[in-house]
């Protein structure tokens, strides 16, 4: 939460109807209804960002989220606007979004993939990719990590839309994932911007077809081809909502460092990290896996974040049932990057601290082969030793693992 000198309310001009009435006085908490959605909830605003932009300084804008941001044009279009609106500033981007990933993975990798570049601004886009993971604790974990790295970094949560969210947003309701994200924004004073309301407004006005083929499209905006990923015109809508929101708050707030409040929830992911695969002790049958050309895991992920190199960095593989590895770790939740297959194709036995073992099937999200990540069950925080043994492997498949995902208090 930022504790800043209040400004005169009359200096704040917000001139479109979807913006909530807000006061400039800094408060320790915000009480916006998490079950409802509005186009803009300013909260503490983004004064550090605009101060640097107007002063013509170097500004690094970071993006973290899923495929809508990774390959999505709203990111590029927003960057173009920043450069045209503030031509004297030296603006660059850090694209740390990875398709098909959520905030639970984002919290583990944000230091390696984004914060190493010391961004001045971070846009977080995770609602479509399960922003409510672990009841918002995963998303919450991002915020303290950003401010521990640099307390002057500003943060904005942006809400993109997929087909299954339309009915909720039509009623002015937040989505199933968003209801866990908005309490985080309230607690930490984070500005949030809802892209979906404008999309639904155009849909209601019969000016937009959400998914190509849903209805005749003559003279209408085609928003997506698949119900999730906007085409160019859809990203224009996202950009336009972002721009009018940012322009309305560019004079809001007083610059200064952000102060991290006590956690909103126990076991937030604020001490999540990635641990190299080489930290484990492997049985004899494992081999080093080829994950493509060498890439620095700390490199800017722009144009590098869609494949095995980023998710694995380095990896180990085996095709021998009975092979195992053991990892000593500290925390309450363990995961790893891995190759997921169809249900039952890869099964492992997980044993921690000599307790009862559990069989886990490494099932993909779409029924095919996916390079993703898997988290195991939460346990009591502390020092642990976990052994994972391969107990079933379908013909022609491989058990491959990369970085460990460790979440500590």
Automatic annotation (TrEMBL):
Top-level taxon of origin: Bacteria
Family matches, as InterPro entries: SGNH_hydro_sf
Keyword annotations of the record: Signal
Molecular function per GO: hydrolase activity, acting on ester bonds
Gene3D superfamilies registered for this protein in UniProt: SGNH hydrolase
Leader sequence segment: 1-21
Designated name of the protein: SGNH hydrolase-type esterase domain-containing protein
């Amino acid at each position: 939460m930022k504790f800043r000198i209040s400004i005169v309310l009359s200096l704040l001009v917000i001139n479109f109807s979807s913006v909530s009435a807000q006061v400039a006085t800094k408060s320790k908490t915000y009480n916006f209804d998490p079950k409802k959605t509005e186009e803009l909830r300013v909260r503490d605003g983004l004064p550090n960002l605009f101060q640097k932009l107007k002063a013509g300084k170097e500004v690094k804008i970071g993006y973290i989220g899923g495929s809508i941001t990774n390959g999505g044009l709203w990111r590029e279009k927003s960057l173009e606007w920043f450069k045209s609106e503030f031509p004297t500033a030296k603006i660059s981007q850090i694209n740390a979004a990875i398709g098909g990933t959520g905030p639970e993975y984002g919290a583990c990798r944000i230091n390696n993939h984004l914060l190493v570049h010391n961004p001045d601004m971070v846009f977080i886009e995770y609602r479509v990719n399960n922003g409510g993971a672990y009841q918002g604790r995963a998303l919450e974990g991002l915020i303290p990590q950003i401010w521990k790295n640099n307390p002057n970094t500003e943060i904005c949560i942006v809400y993109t839309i997929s087909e299954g969210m339309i009915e909720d947003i039509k009623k002015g309701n937040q989505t199933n994932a968003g209801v866990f994200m908005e309490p985080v924004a309230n607690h930490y004073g984070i500005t949030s911007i809802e892209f979906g309301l404008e999309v639904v407004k155009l849909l209601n006005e019969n000016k937009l077809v959400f998914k190509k083929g849903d209805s005749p499209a003559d003279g209408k905006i085609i928003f997506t081809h698949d119900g999730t990923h906007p085409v160019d015109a859809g990203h224009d809508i996202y950009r336009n909502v972002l721009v009018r929101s940012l322009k309305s708050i560019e004079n809001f707030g007083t610059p200064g460092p952000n102060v991290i409040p006590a956690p909103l929830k126990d076991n937030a992911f604020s001490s999540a990290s990635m641990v190299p695969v080489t930290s484990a002790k492997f049985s004899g049958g494992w081999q080093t896996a080829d994950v493509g050309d060498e890439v620095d895991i700390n490199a800017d992920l722009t144009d590098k974040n869609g494949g095995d190199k980023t998710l694995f960095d380095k990896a180990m593989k085996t095709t021998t049932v009975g092979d195992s590895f053991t990892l000593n770790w500290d925390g309450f939740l363990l995961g790893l990057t891995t190759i997921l297959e169809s249900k039952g194709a890869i099964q492992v036995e997980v044993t921690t601290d000599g307790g009862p073992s559990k069989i886990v099937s490494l099932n993909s999200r779409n029924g095919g082969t996916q390079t993703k990540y898997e988290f195991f069950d939460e346990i009591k925080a502390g020092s642990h030793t976990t052994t994972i043994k391969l107990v079933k492997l379908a013909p022609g498949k491989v058990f491959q693992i990369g970085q460990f995902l460790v979440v500590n208090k």
